[in-house]
Design goal:
The protein is mainly alpha-helical and about 180 residues long. The protein has 5 helices and 2 strands; from the N terminus they run ββααααα.
Length: about 180
């Protein structure tokens, strides 16, 4: 059976499904918080029971997933613009170089920028298709229920998004090191 959780904050209540991305993040945070407090074992057991056995109500909020998709796409657009500027900067640096090793590194970085721009485009398109699917499910559904494969697709896209962000950070650092070295 799937359980939903109720997160109480000052004047607000949030419901989320245990397999949702937010649900997993909350449970990780909750487990960390419980492990680093001085609560008695009885209180800890009661809190875990409350969290894990809360009666089912509403599954993952489609509108929240839609907002996440929009935020990811906006961030990817920013990365696309940033990598386009970095590629132009690299071309400016290349015009002044004659050293064979430096030119090889410029070619390597140019290839990396090109590949990452393709990766950004592909992930942005996959998120766009997923967002359309979310919108269709919202329109077709009287409730806020998501198909299991839609939720797992969303989590996979989030993992892909995080991996791409890490890769983009590495490429930017590599370029920054290179630009500082030849300047």
């Amino acid at each position: 059976m799937n359980y939903n959780f109720l997160l109480l904050t000052r004047g607000s209540e949030f419901l989320f499904h245990h397999s949702s991305l937010f649900g997993k993040c909350f449970l990780n945070l909750f487990n960390y918080s419980i492990a680093h407090t001085t609560l008695s074992s009885n209180v800890r057991s009661s809190l875990y029971f409350f969290i894990y056995k809360f009666s089912p109500m509403v599954t993952t909020d489609i509108a929240q997933l839609s907002r996440e998709c929009n935020a990811w796409r906006e961030t990817l657009r920013s990365y696309r613009d940033e990598f386009g500027q970095l590629k132009n900067h690299l071309q400016d640096l290349a015009g002044h170089q004659t050293n064979k090793d430096v030119l090889l590194e410029i070619e390597h970085l140019d290839n990396q920028f090109h590949i990452q721009l393709i990766n950004i485009h592909d992930l942005k398109q996959a998120i766009k298709l997923h967002h359309r699917r979310l919108s269709n499910e919202m329109a077709d559904s009287t409730g806020q229920n998501l198909a299991d494969d839609t939720t797992s697709d969303h989590e996979k896209l989030f993992n892909d998004y995080q991996q791409l962000e890490n890769t983009l950070t590495e490429v930017k650092q590599e370029f920054s090191h290179f630009a500082d070295h030849i300047a």
